[in-house]
Write a structure and sequence with these properties.
CATH architecture: Orthogonal Bundle
CATH superfamily: Ammonium transporter AmtB like domains
Mean pLDDT: 92
Order of helices and strands: HHHEEHHHHHHHHHHHHHEE
Strand order of the largest sheet: 1-2
Number of helices: 16
Radius of gyration: 24 Å
Oligomer: single chain
Number of strands: 4
Number of domains: 1
Strand content: under 5%
Distance between the termini: 97 Å
Shape: globular
Helix content: 55-70%
Length: about 450
């Protein structure tokens, strides 16, 4: 019995010794249920931002065009969702190729399932893909604000598909997917360059290509429903907590810090924008307060996980006046018709936020990041400026080319009669509001 016992005992002991490190390795990459639940919740919050944006924009347009802007935002949600599954996710987060683009390994989300994203990000890759989808969705929808009330719906849908594939996906890879910006050390916690600068600059280019709205030089085009705009701003502010805190990819201290500074910068943005218009025009406005909140949220986005609460307040106080001047003075001086100020708020606010990240960032807040200028690293500011400049050129030039290609196949802009009549009726055959006469019959307004 002894000769048999020794090899059997040795085999059992060896199996136990081998299994122990294997089990330890398995535990090292096991899913974290708390982090997973947190990211799924944040993904839902970010998804809510696109309907919130639709309401924000919807209140700003004239009543004859409110359904058209809502339809554009809804179309973005549908188009980008399918594009992301088929191609977008793998281009943005597939294995790196030349520091420029992701490979096609995840085409159709093949192989994207229950496995953790990495040893340190212990959420399912499917949850990460869903979270990032919501970013792609809101980014494309932001551009609608620059071309509102005059772009043909078919052209907008084609533009959304091409722009997301050719502009957003590569940018996301450059910064977050292992591309050259991330490798170089350019910091963008939740989308200052990837989301806000890219959409703002692209919106500006699209607005210039399309030209001004009819009557823009003859009359002041005012928001038709400010309560709707305020509701949209509130939904955006609420969803932004998922946008920024969720970018920590874990329910940890960095997420809590990002949550806090997001609220602070938005609040400071309200004060500084309203204060600016109060000084210049003598009255604080609800529209200004809502715009200031969004400007503050935009500004803190690239910096949310890297800066202190006090820095966030300073950023909010700076961004309000800058964006106010961009949408009131600069737009008037250069004569472009950025309908709902996508560039004035997202492009300008995102630019300031990206640059200020290079000034206020501190490893005392997030040891995974880099120190900024105030912490003794002026080179970080130069890196941030490089990232901003490249994003301007890439998004601007790419958008111009995409629009020119689409224009070869279909008209970019509705006809003068369609625009005068209103896009709701001329493009969609619907009206947002109906008037009821004394006989009780409904008439579209």
């Amino acid at each position: 019995m002894r000769p048999i016992f020794l090899p059997v005992g040795g085999a059992v002991l060896s199996a136990l010794l081998i299994a122990e490190p294997a089990l330890a390795a398995e535990e090292a990459v096991a899913l974290n249920p708390g982090d997973t639940a947190f990211i799924l919740l944040c993904a839902a919050l970010v998804m809510l931002m696109t309907p919130g944006l639709a309401m924000f924009y919807g209140g700003m347009v004239r009543s004859k065009n409110v359904l058209s802007i809502l339809m554009q935002c809804l179309a973005v949600m549908a188009v980008v969702s399918v594009q992301w599954v088929l191609l977008g996710y793998t281009l943005a987060f597939g294995p790196d190729h030349g520091s420029l683009i992701g490979g096609l390994n995840f085409l159709g989300l093949k192989g994207v399932g229950m496995e953790p994203v990495s040893d340190t990000v212990r959420i399912p890759q499917a949850a990460f893909a869903a979270f990032q989808l919501m970013f792609a969705m809101i980014t494309a929808a932001l551009i609608a604000g620059s071309v509102a009330e005059r772009m043909r719906f078919s052209a907008f849908v084609a533009f959304t598909l091409l722009w997301t594939t050719l502009i957003y996906d590569p940018l996301a890879h450059w910064v977050w997917g292992g591309g050259w910006m991330g490798q170089l050390g350019i910091m963008d916690f939740a989308g200052g360059t990837v989301v806000h600068i890219s959409s703002g600059v692209s919106g500006l280019v699209a607005a210039v290509v399309l030209g001004k709205r009819l009557g823009k030089d003859r009359e002041v085009i005012r928001p038709h429903h400010l309560p709707m705009t305020m509701l949209g701003a509130g939904l955006l502010w609420f969803g932004w907590f998922g946008f920024n805190a969720g970018s920590a990819l874990a329910a940890d201290g960095i997420a809590a810090q990002a949550f806090l500074v997001t609220n602070l910068c938005a609040a400071a943005g309200v004060f500084s924008w309203v204060g600016m218009e109060w000084i210049l025009h003598g009255k604080p406005t609800l529209f200004g307060a809502a715009s200031g909140a969004i400007a503050g949220l935009v500004c803190i986005t690239p910096a949310a996980g890297f800066v202190s609460p006090l820095s966030a307040v300073v950023m909010g106080l700076l961004v309000g006046p800058l964006c106010y001047l961009a949408v009131s003075r600069v737009k008037e001086k250069f004569g472009y018709d950025d309908s709902l100020d996508a560039f004035g708020i997202h492009g300008v606010g995102g630019t300031l936020g990206a640059l200020l990240t290079g000034i206020f960032a501190s490893t005392a807040v997030n040891p995974v990041g880099f120190d900024g200028w105030l912490a003794g690293n002026p080179g970080q500011f130069m890196l941030q400026a490089l990232g901003v400049a490249v994003t301007y050129v890439f998004a601007g030039l790419g958008t111009y080319i995409i629009l020119k290609v689409i224009s070869r196949f279909t008209e970019l802009r509705v006809s003068a009669d369609e625009e005068e009549y209103g896009l709701d009726q001329s493009l969609h055959g619907e009206a947002a509001y109906v008037n009821t006469d004394l006989s009780g019959s409904a008439q579209a307004s």
